[in-house]
Design brief:
The chain is built from twelve helices and eleven strands. It is of the alpha/beta class and about 270 residues long.
């Protein structure tokens, strides 16, 4: 299968499932969560990567150990052997049978199945890149960071083939310079707390299209105090006000929408056709 992220995102809006789909006894960031997301129509899964003290990479959101593992210690303080003994808890706080999955194992699990956004890339740029190459999956992978010349320099020199986005808030003062770099810069994750932010406007959207760049937007709500898309989010869409939430994002031409409700978003998008 040929993977061409930019071309696919220009052809149709892609759905990215935040940590897969969690619920019941299936925690997020597990193979079962990602399988569920793909069954529900996601085009991409977003996963987090953490490292242990001895350098093993696991698919887990760093800092969330007390919540999802009921552990007072963090992965970065443990050995890989210790991390392998941990089990997830479900939404009721009850231990599950699900253990942590290594990044290598997860890449193999998802190979040739979907696009993958590897979050927390900035914490482990070199080892994550080595793993991506080891599995021959650069075309399936998307990585993002905030504006960081050191990361851009490293990618330009060492991994120019990997799909790379910047995470920008309010306005974009970076993309013009990024286009002059010799790396696979494909677009921007746009954060905006108001509809009139330049990064959410049609002038910017047209500039991005003209330069062959795509825009990622977050419908997810991980903290109601952190406004990611001017309130056009899952919290109003999933209960029924879809036109105000997902519809607004679709009407404004975003190429990738990250959501915790991929099946509902897929159904809504099909109804709009």
């Amino acid at each position: 299968m040929t993977w061409k992220l930019k071309e696919d995102a220009f052809a149709r809006t892609l759905i990215a499932a935040h940590r897969g789909v969690a619920g019941g006894d299936i925690p997020g960031n597990t193979p079962e969560a990602f399988d569920t997301a793909l069954c529900q129509g996601a085009d991409m899964v977003e996963l987090d990567v953490s490292n242990t003290a001895d350098g093993e990479l696991f698919v887990f959101h760093p800092g969330m150990e007390p919540v999802f593992l009921h552990s007072k210690r963090y992965l970065k303080e443990m050995t890989a052997e210790e991390a392998r003994k941990l089990v997830y808890v479900n939404g009721d706080g009850t231990p599950t049978e699900k253990k942590l999955t290594t990044f290598d194992a997860m890449l193999e699990h998802l190979k040739d199945r979907c696009y993958i956004n590897v979050d927390k890339f900035w914490d482990n740029v070199e080892p994550i890149t080595r793993a991506i190459r080891r599995h021959g999956m650069a075309e399936q992978i998307l990585v993002k960071t905030g504006p960081d010349p050191a990361v851009a320099d490293w990618l330009e020199q060492n991994a120019p083939e990997i799909n790379y986005m910047l995470i920008l808030s309010g306005e974009d003062t970076q993309s013009e310079a990024m286009l002059r770099r010799k790396l696979n810069y494909i677009g921007v994750e746009a954060l905006f707390d108001r509809e009139d932010c330049p990064i959410a406007g049609e002038v910017y959207a047209e500039w991005m299209r003209k330069h062959g760049l795509i825009r990622w937007v977050n419908a997810i709500v991980y903290d109601h105090r952190a406004v990611l898309a001017a309130g056009h989010n899952d919290n109003i869409s999933a209960p029924g006000r879809m036109d105000e939430g997902w519809g607004w994002l679709l009407d404004h031409g975003f190429n990738i929408i990250q959501t915790d409700w991929p099946m509902m978003l897929r159904h809504y998008m099909e109804q709009r056709k």
